[in-house]
């Protein structure tokens, strides 16, 4: 059953068509939304969460995001590219404010521990670095235990350790949540994706399961898998086969080499 239903969504800005009739049906699990800057990813996510008007229809858990906004947003957590929270509010005040807003019981210490910001209890949000802000916002979102998470470039301000922690969170959460994550590069999120959607110039140019996506990639696209027996370098095309051949408990880390997004688009379009 689809959790997010997107039907013929068009969005135009002063004569520029940002979305050209997007239709998608997103189920439970992790969907990775890929595309170059300007492809329309952020515009689509803002439409899904009801921040922009648009032509067409989007439903979350059956509720229309424009006509039934309050009901739809009860299921939804959103992390934008640029985290903007009240700059003069202290971290503990933000957690309490969010608890009251969402009518949920969030423990301040637990949220700050999840974000590795235990020492910032009384710090103002405006005093935090970019990476700290990102970790705090992620922890706040994940602690809220919402069934649908929309994350726009969530790894952009995280250091390597923060990225690994976030990847681990996604791996644990995706079994019972619907997670849509946008990115302009493959990076390390790919192995956790159940489905990959690629956008370019306001259109969907690929929509399929992870194994379908990997099957399109040739020998030059590599994956590095760290197991209890050491590192293995394999082609992305044989990633699924390799993972099926070993005990999943052996896997400690997976890193896909960055694929230039223009090469990816050309590959999908049959240009190389």
UniProtKB/TrEMBL annotation:
Note the InterPro entries from the entry.
AAA+_ATPase, ABC_transporter-like_ATP-bd, ABC_transporter-like_CS, ABC_Transporter_VariousFunc, P-loop_NTPase
Keywords recorded for this protein, A-Z: ATP-binding, Nucleotide-binding, Transport
| Pfam families, A to Z | ABC_tran
Where in the numbering of this chain does the ABC transporter domain appear?
4-226
What's one GO MF term for it?
Answer: ATP binding
Q: What is this protein called?
A: ABC transporter related protein
